[in-house]
Each structure stands twice: as C-alpha cells, then as structure tokens.
Amino acid sequence: MRNRIIWHFEHGLHCTKRFSGRYETIVWFTKSDDYIFNLDPVRVPQKYPNKKYFKGPRVGQYSCNPLGKNPGDLWIFPNVKNNHVEKTEHLYQFPVELVDRLVLSMTNKKDWVLDPFLGSGTSVISALRHGRKGIGAETNKKYVKITHDRIKQFEKGSLTRPMNTPIHDPKKPAKSIQYKSDKQLDQINLFNDSRLDIYQG
Fold this sequence. Notes:
27% helix; two-stranded parallel ribbon; alpha/beta
C-alpha cells in the first residue's frame, strides 16, 4: 500500500443520531516497486511561495518548488450534488477533478485507464481529458447511455468543473436562507436562545 487518501467534502446527508459523514477513503496499492508516480502535474500552490533559505550555501534562494507543493493525502473537492455542473441521474457520482488527480499522477499519456465499475463514466472522462484511453464495464444500460452522453458533453467542452477552481469564493455574497414557515423561524430562534444560555452559564 502506497497511500491511504482521504477525500473530504462539505455536503451530504445530515444525520441526527451520529456525526454526518464528510469523507471517502481512497487506497492506493501497487503490485511492485516499479510503478508510475507523476507529481508535477498534480502539484498545488505553495503555502509560502516566496520563502527563501536564510542560511547555508543557498541563502537568499527560493526554498520551495516553483511548480508547487505535493498535495498530500487529504484532498478537498466538492462532491457532486444537485447544483453541480456534472450532475447526472447516478446516485453516487464522483467529481471528475478528483479522478483527474489520480489519472495524472498514476498514468502516462496514451496509457489505458480501466474502471471495472464504470458507473457514470467519470474515470473514462478523466482519461480522455488528459490524453489517456479509457475502458470500463457497467451492467446498467442507463448508466452506459449516461457515459456516452457525458463523452459528447466533454467533446463540446461543457462537462466539467475546471481543476483548481476555488470551492468557495468569500467575495461573493451567499444566498439568503429562505424559511418556509414561521414555525421554522421560531425553531431557529429557540436554538439560538438556548445556545446563548449555555454560553452565559
């Protein structure tokens, strides 16, 4: 096993009797020590891009990789929900940008990407996006049609959320919460009053 990767997302089922699940686990295995790992295509911006060596023979030179840093094993991508540009009828659809990081780092151009549980075709879409060849197996004919339709969307350039797009832009005002009834508003106020009592002791 090379890595146990955690994919974190913000939206999902809101549980009432346990903490809501907000991650999936990706486990990366290789058959031997002879494997592909391309770090440069998946680097992310440095936290301190202007950091320099302060002593030694390289003093004054940049100490970080100019292409960015290793993204680590905690990945944050939005999951595919109703208002996501990639949303289809598939119930458990993964975002293309999540699979992009796997395809870019673990394959080379013109390689084959195999997905034995194709679903909505995300892995094949990612492969095509980055000069790979994709193949998969799926028993549900509806999902096979969805995959074909998504390939056509990809060819038109209207399918995916661009890589490295910010998840949330704080400069854009959020939509106001609309309450359906006075009862809902009363419940919110009751919660806020109770929380205030707790803070005040």
